[in-house]
Amino acid sequence: MSSSLTRWAVGLGLATVAMGLLLAHAARTQEIAGAWHGRLQVPSGAALRIGLQVSRTPDGRLSGFLTSPDQTPHPIPLGTVRMEAGKLVFDAPAVGASYQGAWDGARQAWAGKLKQGGLDMPLTFKKGPPPQQASAPATARPQTPKPPFPYRSLDVAFDSVPGVRLAGTLTLPEGAGPFPAAVLITGSGPQDRDETILGHKPFLVLADNLTRRGIAVLRVDDRGVGQSTGERADATTADFAKDTEAAVGFLRTRRDIDPARIGLIGHSEGGIIAPMVADADRRIAFVVLMAGSAVPGAEVLQSQREAIERLAGASPEAIARTEAQLAKISAAVADTTTPKQALARLETEFPGLPPARAKAVVDQLGSPWMRWFAAYDPRPALEKLRIPVLALNGSKDTQVVPQINVPAMRQALKDDPKATVIELPGLNHLFQDAGTGAPSEYATIQETLSPLALKTIGDWVTAQTKR
User: Fold this and answer.
1) Which of 417, 434, 427, 414 is nearest to 456 (CA)?
2) What is the residue-wise DSSP string for 195-226?
3) DSSP per-residue letters across 423-459
4) Which of 23, 125, 136, 383 could form a disulfide with 105 if both were Cys (CB 3.0 to 4.6 A apart)?
5) Per residue in 289-310, pLDDT tens?
6) Closest CA to 189 of 92, 88, 299, 75
7) pTM over 0.85, yes/no
8) What span, in angstroms and rounded, lies between the C-alpha atoms of 278 and 283?
9) Could you tell me the CATH number of the domain that includes residue 195?
10) 72 is a domain residue
């Protein structure tokens, strides 16, 4: 899954070069409040944008958060921010990172080191927010579909649960129908209908491919994103499953859609949602899981962190230390039911933990989405399926690690004679042909979806939807 915590662990595990002169007097007079930005130069050659936003309260205290727009839309709260002996010092407990830097008057920047996962990484922050799309090309990716299209494209909207109205695009083959149809289900985090990331639009590419094959495709903005309404702050994966159910219900109202041939295609978190919806609705015709997980969420997150830290060069000992600390903190928060209880538990079990840092931990690990995801086991839902299922995992996926997930998926689907599990060679979590599979590569790969993935999905869905 692409949660804010785990995505950010990627960016913080990679280094950039930052040298500078340390001018203590300038540091004392430099106002830290405001927006700052830096770069992390990754091994593949990509430069990931890093943002730092610092605020000052009326009584002079500092707070803030980090951003990595090339990795995730979610801000990462800082635990403590302070000026100490003319130096800028902060930590980000949600990702086990800390920073210390001194003012470089010659470059008007904070130059220092960020520590995370056993690594010391030079990092310089300059004034201003991260530049727009610095790490992604301004032009469309080569696979982005271009008109004219041999099919129709309609803007649609429909209601889900009270307060949530979903907006999206329905592509329909030429002709009267009724057509088979697929609902596309996005991964974690706020996603638009195209699942846009780093200039890529994978759901637009996939919808184009399928509609050219005679299959109608519905893709929608997540609740609270784009033209869709609704709050998502307290929403969990189970809530997003309700939105998918509404999408299926909408398709069944249309005379140009065959209600007996509607299926689900879910990516990442969407690969958890699809079996949930199919179990509740036995009229679902087929399911495609693109990097859907078959192990509990806590195992997904742990294997994801370990895989990414290994690629970043962390030693086994450093990885073990990080996981041991995270396990202790997570266990302290896990059985509490309110933020107040969680803060009290951390204060008791970790008396040296600063209050601001404890709050940041609770905000991350205690969020409704994270609690639900970490505790959820997808296997019971998968084990109930008795419909055509295509489960795909890229062999270089570092977010849903195939070494753990593929055997578990095969075991969970073993009693479904119509299920197929395939590990696609050389593909990452976004189903791109990849070098290492690290999320830091996503921006540098021009390919949006591997031709192998497109053909595998297209051929299979076409075969399942024949009358």
Assistant:
1) 427
2) --BTTB-HHHHHHHHHHHTT-EEEEEPPTTST
3) EETTB-TTS-B-SS--GGGTTT---SS-HHHHHHHHH
4) 23
5) 999 999 999 899 889 888 888 8
6) 75
7) no
8) 8
9) 3.40.50.1820
10) yes
